[in-house]
Design a protein that fits this description.
Low-confidence stretches: none
Mean pLDDT: 89
Structural class: alpha+beta
Number of helices: 3
Radius of gyration: 30 Å
Largest sheet: 5 strands, mixed, barrel
Strand order of the largest sheet: 1-2-3-5-4
Order of helices and strands: HHHEEEEE
Length: 144
Amino acid sequence: MNDINAWVWWLIGAAGLGIPLVVTAMPEFGMLAVGAVAGAVVAGLGGGVVLQVLVFVAVSVALIAVVRPIAARHSAQRPQLATGVEALKGKQAIVLERVDGSGDGRIKLGGEIWSARSLDAGQAYEVGQEVDVVDIDGAKAIVM
């Protein structure tokens, strides 16, 4: 065991921390692995064991303290580009067949023909009127 340099042990530790990173997809293991690589660099440059451990701890804690909040903030944000039915909400459409609360009406929305019903069951929209899409319920647009 004395034949292997300390930096090799640090790299083995970094590889060992990379395994749970891949298996669990927890980025903290990756940050600890980067700290172990930093410890290997210090060991390779001839730093003592205490300095190696201090660099490992400092780099790992710094990465977790800085990167983790940034990653959490990015994962909490909604995508800025709406796609699918989310992109249709708020769009305007033209009534092709009378739309009321029954759901038998038709509108032209984004170049496509959609079944539609009014948000307010007592409200009706006549052919040619412009309506706003407030929601999509299955394959039916809810308009007002």
